[in-house]
Amino acid sequence: MRRKMIAGNWKMNNGPAAAEDFVSALEEWFASDRGGKRSADAVSSGRIEIVLAPPFTSIASAVAARRTNLIDIAAQNAHHKRGGAFTGEVSLPMIEESGCKYVIIGHSERRHVFGETDDALEKKLIATLESGVLPIFCVGETLDERTSGSMEKVLSSQLTSAWSSLTSDVIGEMVVIAYEPVWAIGTGKTASDSDAEDACDFIRTLAYDKFGIAASDSLRILYGGSVKPENSGALLAQSDIDGLLIGGASLDVEQFEKIIESAL
Ligand code: PGA
Question: Can you tell me the distance from the alpha carbon of 71 to that of 43, in angstroms, rounded to the nearest whole number?
């Protein structure tokens, strides 16, 4: 049984004070009867994992606001070098020291707004796997790529380039893949349950072809793109979707709580 991951990507939202308020509210809910305790039990027993990805400057206050170990923290990006003259960048050892368990690598905004290439993302993925932080590696096609029928080609080339030098153990135990079709991110257009499942199934098959059955069975694959409480349950019911990466709806603590409940 793969552990479900419910991950909130706050993007460039929620400064330190808002991050503290959000984490405190979520902790209070975990201690409350309104579905919170059931969710906390599911996390404690290892069935679900809850992750929040604040912007860098809010990581410390999100970490400090935790009163339990129910919430894991992720960074949204990292540089592949461990240190040096890279103004404006943040290294993986710094991210680890600040209390993060995960880092998001290759989010579509990093690829398309900031021009991160497959080669650069392969370096980041390898550096992450050599650090004490685990990667949530994002892939996904644009609308043009989907309508021209090249979704599989795009996913395949993004993944082949990223994981070419990895081993089965690493893929099965350390890597989380997030399938996020670019046309569904922040647009209100969710992929249909079956489109999302087909893409996640395709990713698992690619993992099977390269790494074998054990690794592909344990690889966790998330869906992301306009996830809301109204569609989260149906997406999570798909056999190859092991969790959700949530942008907009993760900024509202009640919506985020409802999404967690839909994973129970
Ligand atoms: P969205 O963002 O839920 O706002 O579409 C998802 C993401 O970018 O991870």
Answer: 9
Could you report the average pLDDT of every consecutive run of 10 residues in the chain (264 residues)?
A: 96 98 97 91 97 98 97 98 98 98 98 96 97 97 93 96 94 96 87 94 98 97 96 97 98 98 96
**Which H or E run includes 6?**
strand 4-9
pTM, two decimal places: 0.97
Q: At what angle do helices 16-30 and 36-44 cross, to 10 degrees?
A: 90
173 among known catalytic residues = no
Hey, what domains does the chain have and what are their CATH numbers? Answer: 4-262 (3.20.20.70)
**Mutation choice for ligand 1 from 108, 113, 227, CB with most ligand atoms inside 8 A:** 227
**What pairs with residue 160 in β-bridges?**
none
Among candidate residues 123, 124, 120, 135, the one with its CA nearest the CA of residue 219:
135
Residue 129 phi, psi (nearest 5): -70, -20
Residue tagged 């399938």 (tokens):
179
Q: How far apart are CA 144 and CA 140, in angstroms?
A: 12
Task: Give me the catalytic one of 49, 109, 116, 180.
Answer: 180
Our answer to whether residue 180 is catalytic in this structure is: yes
